[in-house]
Fold this protein.
Amino acid sequence: MSKVVDAATTVPRWAVKALRGLTGATDQRPDGVDGPGRWLVVTVYRKAEDVRTQVDDSGPLSRMRGEIELTVRPAPGDKGTELAARPTTSDDGQVDARRRLRAALRETKSILECGEVVEPSRPGSSHPGPAGHLLRAVTARAWGEGRL
């Protein structure tokens, strides 16, 4: 009987967790008891001193200095430097702060490795119809989301 009860409670928990993962919701509580959020990490193929200088100067992450916590450390296997950041305040379920942080991390990585922010070719689609509008909207939002 206990296996049936265990399965009856485990499956709904697993389903809720899967749905939260798909929608971008987190398991943290609104009152911030579980901490401000998880770390977002990029690996930059540069020395740690170069990364610290860019972050401390006028880079995209320096504009968010009061809102985020940063860590710079050597990447595993001597493959550059890991730059990790997370919001210091709870965003009350909003994803805008994480999107801005993700975009700033990508811009910083691009500036450090290429010297400029590399963007997709413009225009994404020259088609004036609904498909072209949709493609332009998705490409514009991709910096703050996952891979496109």
Notes: The longest strand covers residues 68-74.
